[in-house]
Amino acid sequence: MKYRNKLFSYKKPYDLISTQKLFNKAVLENCKYQYKNCTEYRKILDGMSFNPEKINVNGDIPDNIIEKIPVIPTLLFKRMKMFSVPERKIPIKATSSGTSGKNVSEIGFDLGSLVCGLKMVLKVGRARDIFSLIPCHYIIMGYQPHKSNKTAVTKTAFGATLFTPCLSRTYILKYKNGKYIPDFKGVIGKLKILEKSSFPCRFMGFPAYTFFLLKIMREKGITIKLPVGSKILLGGGWKQFYAEQPDKTEFYRLSEEVLGVSEENIIEFFGAVEHPVLYCDCKNHHFHIPIYSRVTIRDVDTLKPIGYGETGLVNLITPMVKATPVLSVMTDDLGILRKGKECGCGNPSPYLEIVGRVAPESLKTCAAGAAEMLKNI
Predict the structure, then answer these.
(1) How far apart (Å, rounded) are the C-alpha atoms in residues 323 and 108?
(2) What are the phi and psi torsion angles at 342 (to 5°)?
(3) Cα(358)–Cα(365) distance, rounded to whole angstroms?
(4) Maximum distance among all Cα pairs of the chain, rounded to whole angstroms
(5) pLDDT 10s digits, 184-235
(6) Helix, strand, or coil (residue 181)
(7) Which end of the chain has fewer CB atoms at under 10 Å, N or C?
């Protein structure tokens, strides 16, 4: 996929204007491949009277090609497998739900997508200064790896510990007797030890777990001053815990009060196994759209694209993955797309604001499965 490779090799990760034509070509290139090699995907496109073969990838591609490509709800991937290459040739598969979830998306990642993903992470991460040669201790507010756990969020959390040389990994969710059990006491004990370390500490994982840990520590009167350079990296979302989600300023204040980690050292990520693009917040904590994806907000009733500042379903588009037809997916998130100039950080790319979810309560996702355990604390 030459256009995909060119896109992910582009040096500026937020230059949407200069890469728009290249993005369109990469999207159509991917769509043609999926159409030829995935029977289920071809049936969907035929059923919606969309034939990518009729569009010349080397010609003038319509600007609205992104909106015209049929959108697949992430729910469909939770109910059926769709692969565009033989499964034996897929080096990595990842699932979207917790290990106890019944609705699981299984997404295959081809070698090319993994290489593209590495290029993307390096560029986006460098822009947010998340890489360092200084060794760190990691507190992972998520699942301890286990052979039965193939969730993308577990792989991502482990991968994030490679942003610096890793001295140790401590997990909040320990695998015992066939299930995951939260170990807040163990994490607090580890933090008391790391307070005296010569090296910084980094949190990585679910924001809900991190927030509840901070609340528990405050209620117990436990305050810790983590070493200089310590950071909190958040990923996974709040899912059904939107009602408990605090105002960001409250979270930042609590973090500094309990751990001594200030707002500028708190970084949040957004993504999904069905859309493995890295969205990393800016200094104003907004998710600007990188060149590797586009976001369309759709009306909840008509599914037609709507404009900036309007709330609707989040449609995510990326030509990154070849092994599974996740070219254009509809999430269960409600979001708003805003113009880059409204942010004030200097990044001209539009940014996505997630405001809620519309998924039925029975639908479990990776963060939802973990959040369910919090109710038992």
Answers:
(1) 5
(2) -75, -15
(3) 13
(4) 66
(5) 999 999 999 999 999 999 999 888 889 989 999 999 999 999 999 999 999 8
(6) strand
(7) C
